[in-house]
Each structure stands twice: as structure tokens, then as C-alpha cells.
Design brief:
There is one protein chain. It is built from twelve helices and eight strands. The chain has 273 residues and is α+β, with helices and mostly antiparallel strands. The strands form two sheets. Strands 1-2-8-3-6 form a five-stranded antiparallel β-sheet, with helices on one face. It has a three-stranded antiparallel β-sheet with strand order 5-4-7, with no helix packed on it. The radius of gyration is 19 Å and the shape is globular.
Length: 273
């Protein structure tokens, strides 16, 4: 179940997901992202599997840091969880979360990272399944917890926020961002890593690939006349082989196979649901 974040949370939380009795075997690989999540497991926490890496057993309350590798959830029991997906940069802006330390990690939510979410623990303890009204009630509690920390909010520096916005455009170039912001390349890289966890190249590449995947018109089921050259040009690739290599590294599939066989994936990753 997906619910839109309440108004008071909308500047920080992008969306709230509630998974009820989900079979992990039916879930696809989860793709890299620069958006951080806070996850609360209502039943036994699962394991995370990444290609060629040892499985990681998650804690009951944990972060999903910025990811540069795709990963898969594995669980013998059905999944019951609540996931809060933050807008890019919001965890640092709101709570000073140490984003660079979270890259490709799933650290436990504790007194250090961040205590405000532990206020939700009594509400969630012993609740293996929730109704929609419970989830909305939880959202109100989250709003209260975040509201109590709003006086400590430190807005992201305007030049770094602008750099992030520019990097989400198809033909983004760091040299152009340098000219527009007056920052050096090193200053931009330090700022991006501090707030978003990734360097400009990683962030821009992941954003471009995800934007293609989230666009239903790129799938054969929606557009029989769609061509890979058009898809790659849509996000600024002029070299087809470069596009194919980046796409396969991030998704694990060739783009021609993905957009032919994974028509439902566009809906799974479509944040507008």
C-alpha cells in the first residue's frame, strides 16, 4: 500500500509504503538510488543480498542509505514493513544524518542515527499487520516527531541544492555547474557527498537511468515504436555503447531486454503511484 506523505511531512518525506504479507520471492531486484529510506519491520527482518556479496541480516529498524549497487530482499517469512522514503538531502537537512557513511549500507536506527524515530518504537512493537487507518495514524506520529526537530533544521546551501537540481537534467555537465555557481569542482563534489552521499557523476548517472525506467512510454507494452536510440538520447547519452554499459551496470540487464520483458517494472519504480 502506498500513501502520500501528509502535508506537514511533504517537504521531507516523499512517500510512505506499507508492505503487508509480501512474498520476497516475487520482488524484483531493487535498483540503486540516492534517496534514503527509514524502514520499520513489523515481522522478522529479512536479509539483503547483493551480487557476489555475503547476505546482510537487517535490524528491525534500519536506514537504507544511498545505493550504487542493486540489491534483493530475501526472507523465509512474509514481509510486513513500513518504509519512509525521504526527498534527496532531507535526512541531512532535518537530522544531520551522516550520509557518506551510509552509502551502500543498511545501518540500524539507534540513538545516534536518529533518536526521533525511536519514539515510534512503542507504537510499532507487536504490530505484525496494520490497517490503512493505522498507517495514517503512524504518519501523524511521524509528523509530530519531525515537527519537534524543525527548529534545528539547517537548509542545504543554495549553491549545492542548485547543483543537485542541475545534475538531474539530461545533459548536465559539472563544468557548466561550476560557472553557474562559482564553486570549484572539488567544492561541488564535497558538497554533493556531504548532503547526498554520492559524487556528481554517480548521482547523475543513477538519476538518468531511473528516469528512463520510471517512464512507462519507454516500454514496449506502452509504445511499440519505441527505439533504444530515442530512449538513450532522452537522458543525454550520445554514445549508444556508453548507455548500454551504464544501464547494464545499474540494472543487471541490457536495455533491450529490460524494456521488452519488464513492462511491470516501470510501475514498481514509478514514484507517482
Amino acid at each position: 500500500m502506498f500513501i502520500k506523505a501528509p502535508f506537514q511531512l511533504s517537504p521531507y518525506i516523499k512517500e510512505i509504503w506499507y508492505w503487508k504479507n509480501v512474498d520476497s520471492n516475487l520482488l524484483p531486484w531493487i535498483l540503486p538510488s540516492y534517496e534514503i529510506e527509514a524502514v520499520f519491520h513489523l515481522s522478522n527482518p529479512p536479509q539483503v543480498h547483493r551480487y557476489m556479496d555475503e547476505p546482510i541480516t537487517l535490524s528491525s529498524f534500519h536506514w537504507v542509505g544511498p545505493q550504487t549497487k542493486r540489491w534483493k530482499i530475501e526472507s523465509k517469512s512474509k514481509l510486513n514493513l513500513i518504509s519512509l522514503r525521504f526527498h534527496a538531502g532531507a535526512p541531512w537537512e532535518l537530522m544531520r544524518v551522516k550520509t557518506p557513511l551510509m552509502v551502500n549500507g543498511f545501518p540500524e536506527i539507534d540513538m545516534d542515527s536518529h533518536a526521533l524515530f525511536l519514539k515510534l518504537k512503542p507504537f510499532l512493537s507487536g504490530s505484525h499487520c496494520l490497517e490503512e487507518s493505522d498507517v495514517r495514524y503512524l504518519a501523524d506520529h511521524i509528523g509530530e516527531a519531525i515537527g519537534s526537530h524543525q527548529i534545528t533544521i539547517a537548509p542545504i546551501e543554495a549553491s549545492i541544492k542548485f547543483a543537485f537540481s542541475e545534475l538531474t537534467k539530461a545533459n548536465a555537465k559539472v563544468t557548466d555547474i561550476e560557472k553557474k555557481t562559482g564553486l570549484s569542482r572539488k567544492q561541488i563534489e564535497r558538497g554533493m557527498k556531504k548532503i547526498y552521499g554520492l559524487n556528481p557523476g554517480e548521482l547523475g548517472k543513477i538519476h538518468r537511468i531511473l528516469s528512463l525506467i520510471r517512464n512507462p512510454s519507454n516500454y514496449k507494452s506502452e509504445n511499440l515504436n519505441g527505439r533504444l536510440t530515442d530512449i538513450s538520447h532522452e537522458c543525454g547519452y550520445v554514445d549508444q555503447s556508453h548507455f548500454i554499459n551504464d544501464f547494464k551496470r545499474i540494472t543487471g540487464y541490457l536495455p533491450k531486454d529490460w524494456f521488452k520483458e519488464f513492462e511491470k517494472m516501470s510501475h514498481f519504480y514509478n514514484s507517482n503511484l
